[in-house]
Amino acid sequence: MARKNDSLVVLTARLADVPPPPAAAAPSPPTAAPPVAAAPRLYQQPVITATDAELPEVLSLLDSTTTFQADYYPIKAFRICNGPTDTAREYCNCSHYVYIALNTDDLPYECKGFRIGPFYEARFKGWNSDKKNPALRIEHEVGGRRKTDTFRIAWDGGIHQQ
Known about the structure:
elongated
């Protein structure tokens, strides 16, 4: 049993109130339609394309990541080992670059990327808790001593060392 406020009942009532369309003019003689190109299929076989030469190297050497959600965009940091490393150690004792990726959550989708480094024996030490002015702390070795640098990350201004 349908109620008065059911959407189907309301829609049927509205359609009943719409006047019929005016009578159409006499049909024109048929003409040959131009050939229509096949529409691209949304799901089709994957296409393999070559990428930037740096991208496969970066992806294969990625060894750790950290993320932070700023007010209007997420930030991802990727530590990339430049190799080679001492195989006798349990951790990477080589130099690193840190790649920073920023992207918007809404449309139009926009991305920005930065590279910081090189660092020797870099480790992520965390993020500050300020979502308006996010900053990443990276600990690394300089002249045999550990040092921590802080990098403020801004969508419109890039990355600045503090």
